[in-house]
From TrEMBL, chain A:
This is Acyl-CoA/acyl-ACP dehydrogenase. The keyword Translocase does not apply. Belongs to the acyl-CoA dehydrogenase family. Residues 220-357 form the Acyl-CoA dehydrogenase/oxidase C-terminal domain. Its cofactor is FAD. It comes from Bradyrhizobium jicamae. Keywords: FAD, Flavoprotein, Oxidoreductase. InterPro entries: Acyl-CoA_Oxase/DH_mid-dom_sf (IPR046373), AcylCo_DH-like_C (IPR036250), AcylCo_DH/oxidase_C (IPR009075), AcylCoA_DH/ox_N (IPR013786), AcylCoA_DH/ox_N_sf (IPR037069), AcylCoA_DH/oxidase_NM_dom_sf (IPR009100). Residues 6-118 form the Acyl-CoA dehydrogenase/oxidase N-terminal domain. Pfam families: Acyl-CoA_dh_1, Acyl-CoA_dh_N.
Automatic annotation (TrEMBL), chain B:
InterPro entries: Acyl-CoA_Oxase/DH_mid-dom, Acyl-CoA_Oxase/DH_mid-dom_sf, AcylCo_DH-like_C, AcylCo_DH/oxidase_C, AcylCoA_DH/ox_N, AcylCoA_DH/ox_N_sf, AcylCoA_DH/oxidase_NM_dom_sf, Mycobact_Acyl-CoA_DH. Residues 240-392 form the Acyl-CoA dehydrogenase/oxidase C-terminal domain. This is Acyl-CoA dehydrogenase. The keyword Flavoprotein applies. Belongs to the acyl-CoA dehydrogenase family. It holds the Pfam family Acyl-CoA_dh_M. Keywords: FAD, Flavoprotein, Oxidoreductase. It comes from Bradyrhizobium jicamae. The keyword Ribosomal protein does not apply. Residues 134-228 form the Acyl-CoA oxidase/dehydrogenase middle domain. It comes from the Bacteria. Residues 51-130 form the Acyl-CoA dehydrogenase/oxidase N-terminal domain. Its cofactor is FAD.
Length: 375, 415
């Protein structure tokens, strides 16, 4: 049994960690946090040069052709560094949707640009409050033109194109949803930036008024593709979350070793030690669930829907748990703008929602476990 | 990344599977499969006898204590082969419960500290289950703080005379031998005055009294020692070096990766899948699903954490510290799972007779046994200390008794 990443994959992780430590220190994240830039353009270019943006994109479409295990490894490091770039929206959502459903021409058009850092993509799914559901989609598609609005759209304000879920029939069935690619600089598209609790990542509202749209995948196949994309993205995002959880745990541990109160390091008090031990427990459970998700994703196993939901729930819980208790370990200093703790807290709570919230994935997990048991 | 066996592992698995299929006591398979915490029993059979017979059969065919050297009754297998055996043994592995302490703790301690002739005499019958061993460490005054134990050993010629009391000794009532940690010098700090022995549990002056547990059952004992005489040749390690000997015992245990800790989740999922509530099946209820999902990811997290440790063994590496979380997570989880199963039953959840209680009282038994799982073998708090100190590198507790002679340490909180 080798339920672990290979030496080559671990080496890639070390490279990514080293690269991000140099190119994406907290100071760089703060440039975006403080509103000085919508995202870190230099880092985005660097990630393209390292081959990280196209790591899971086949060589014939301009990628490195490595695979999803390699992408998991990179994702973990992106989460650890809180990279302020549209990696998840472009790579886990837009690129995966095109890989699953795109025509050869669409793949040729977009994937090389994504790998080269020349195109930012996203998935426009939500229309206000609520979790992923075909019933919640009201953007209409008629004769290649879209009408309606999407919000929140992750990285929508900086994206060049979006994969848009739209209604091509009037009922509530999944088969009435289709996907389209829309270029966001085109006529009939209005993009309004929105404020995110995670200030290092953008959100937007996008309004379509007879916007030109190109079908992605088969008519009526949209929801099936969305479901596959969400499962894949759930695993990849879970690795980001585990990376963030680990870093928050390390920050708390380091502070507990250095900070003296009552004449001793605060890490010698059981109340603090036990809090950190519990953080380690959730981060470890999440990592193990993520490994299973990575295995299912990379082998395209029938277990992917269940494994993705488990990884998503576990990693969401772990990142939220570690990020909030990291602040608690830091005490008052943890609640200052100056300390980095709040950046992890913001990211943890924002990414907990983006692909559908915990309650959505809890429900999905039990449905999927039942289906497996019934089969 | 894969779950595949190497060719050698696959060959070993096939051999183990075939032998188990031909030899296991199949008539008990169903009952053993259904066993859960607080509820392991075989109707119409004495489980201890069944367990001993199975262990002897395994030993005769070379399948006992796989990782031990052959000359001491084992098979000389690699750690990964031991794991594969446990996977294949499946429910029959539950019959090994009575041997866990002997095989996991007493045997390795004997192997490290006993004389060669003693090892050849005592280890093979321990491996084969013909002789059962227990571990006599905990005392009324030394549980989590086991080095605070007070049982005295005094040297008289070539013998040691033991007086004192042990508690929470699993299986002392059916054990033939035990390893015993004693205080040999009370005038030095507590960790520096301990000495380890092994002894015959039938020695004159040894009295075993079962403890009636909070659950009503009796799995543990108190053991009293009154002028019990142990020859110096049965001392393990140097005089006053017993603390280091006991650490060896515990470190050995860390290398063993069990067939998985019990969380109660599979039982609860089964139960919720068939249970009807007032407004429909329990598993359709949003609140139930949310609780189930939260436990599901803990159970799968533990399962795949264990897979990661097994992978390390498979590659010939030492497993990382991840596996230390198992008991901590599973212990409180099974308690919560049991309470939730009763909650779903409403007022009737309080009934505990086998005829009146749901699923024959499985969850009631689990609930009543669960508090013990959070205490035995290291309390939740000790497990958190271990993770904080050994994994995260946080400072140890300040030990106010560290440099104080044992006989000067206060023994009462409020005077």
């Amino acid at each position: 049994m080798n339920f672990d990443f290979s030496d080559e994959q671990k080496q890639m992780r070390d490279e990514a960690r080293k690269f991000l430590a140099e190119q994406c220190p907290p100071k760089a994240v703060r440039e975006v946090l403080d509103g000085k830039a919508p995202y870190d353009k230099a880092l985005w270019k660097g990630l393209a040069e390292m081959g990280f943006l196209g790591v899971a994109i086949p060589e014939k479409f301009g990628g490195a052709g490595a695979g999803h295990l390699e992408l998991c490894v990179i994702a973990e490091e992106m989460g650890r560094a809180l990279a302020p770039v549209p990696f998840s929206s472009t790579v886990y959502l837009a690129a995966e949707a095109i890989l699953i459903a795109g025509s050869d021409a669409q793949k040729q058009k977009w994937l090389p640009k994504i790998a080269a850092g020349e195109a930012i993509g996203t998935l426009a799914l939500f229309e206000g409050k609520g979790n992923p559901s075909p019933k919640a989609i009201n953007v209409s598609a008629n004769g290649g033109a879209l009408n309606g609005f999407k919000k929140p759209v992750p990285d929508g304000a900086i994206a060049d194109f979006a994969v848009v879920a739209a209604r091509t029939g009037s009922g509530s069935r999944e088969s009435e949803i289709s996907l389209f690619i829309v270029e966001l600089k085109a006529a009939g598209v209005e993009v309004k930036p929105l404020t995110n609790i995670d200030l290092t990542r953008g959100q937007a509202e996008i309004t379509f008024k007879n916007a030109k749209a190109e079908p992605l995948g088969e008519h009526g196949d949209g929801w099936s593709v969305i479901s596959q994309v969400l499962d894949r993205a759930a695993v990849l995002m879970a690795f980001e979350q585990v990376g963030g959880a680990d870093r928050a745990l390390e920050m708390g541990r380091d502070y507990a070793l250095d900070r003296i109160a009552f004449g001793r390091p605060i890490g010698s008090f059981q109340a603090v030690k036990h809090m950190l031990a519990d953080m380690y427990v959730s981060a470890t459970l999440a990592r193990s669930n993520c490994y299973y998700g990575a295995w299912a994703l990379s082998t395209n196993a029938g277990e992917l829907p269940e494994a993705a939901a488990a990884a998503r729930i576990s990693a969401t819980q772990a990142f939220q748990h570690c990020a909030k208790n990291n602040i608690q370990v830091h005490g008052g200093m943890g609640f200052t703008w100056e300390f980095d703790c709040h950046m992890y807290y913001r990211r943890a709570n924002a990414v907990a929602l983006g692909l559908g919230s915990l309650s959505y994935w809890e429900d999905a997990l039990i449905d999927r476990m039942r289906k497996k048991n019934a089969a | 990344m894969n779950f595949d066996d190497t060719p050698q592992e696959a060959a070993f698995r096939a051999e183990a599977k075939a032998w188990i299929a031909a030899n296991a006591p199949k008539q008990y398979e169903e009952e053993l499969s259904k066993a859960s915490l607080g509820r392991v029993q075989l109707k119409g059979a004495n489980i201890l006898e069944v367990a001993k017979a199975w262990q002897k059969k395994k030993a005769d065919a070379g399948w006992a204590c796989l990782h031990w050297p052959k000359e001491y009754g084992g098979r000389g297998s690699s750690p990964i082969e031991r794991v594969i055996w446990q996977q294949e043994e499946g429910p029959f592995g539950r019959l090994s419960a009575m041997f866990i302490i002997g095989h996991g703790m007493c045997g390795p301690t004997m192997m490290a500290f006993a004389g060669e002739e003693q090892k050849r005499t005592f280890l093979p019958p321990l491996a084969s289950g013909e002789k059962v061993w227990c571990q006599l460490f905990s005392e009324p005054a030394g549980g989590s703080d086991v080095a605070g134990l007070r049982t005295r050993a005094e040297k008289h010629g070539d013998e040691w005379v033991i007086n004192g009391q042990k508690i929470w000794t699993s299986g002392a009532h059916y054990s033939d031998y035990g390893i015993l940690l004693t205080r040999t010098d009370p005038t030095v700090p507590k960790h520096k005055g301990l000495t380890m022995f092994f002894l015959d549990m039938k020695s004159p002056g040894v009295e075993v009294r079962p403890i009636k547990q909070a659950s009503g059952a009796s799995d543990f004992n108190e053991v009293y020692f009154t002028d019990v005489r142990i020859p110096d040749s049965q001392r393990l390690g140097n005089v006053n070096d017993g603390w280091n000997v006991s650490l060896t015992t515990l470190m050995n245990e860390r290398m063993s990766i069990g067939a998985g800790v019990s969380t109660g989740f599979p039982e609860l999922l089964d139960y919720c899948s068939s249970l009807m509530l007032e407004d429909g099946p329990a598993i359709e209820n949003r609140a139930v699903r949310s609780r189930l999902a939260n436990w599901a990811v803990k159970a799968s997290g533990l399962k795949y954490t264990s897979m990661r440790a097994i992978s390390a063994l498979s590659k010939g590496e030492r497993p990382g510290p991840e596996n230390s979380i198992g008991k901590l997570v599973a212990g409180s989880m099974i308690q919560d799972v049991a309470a939730f199963a009763l909650d779903l039953q409403g007022a009737a959840g309080a009934l505990n007779g086998p005829d009146d209680a749901e699923v024959a009282g499985k969850f009631q038994a689990m609930l009543l046994r669960a508090p013990g799982t959070r205490v035995e073998g290291g309390t939740d708090e000790i497990m958190r200390n271990i993770i904080a100190e050994r994994v995260l590198g946080l400072p140890g507790d300040i030990r106010v008794d560290k440099d104080v002679p044992f006989n000067k340490i206060p023994t009462k909180g409020r005077a």
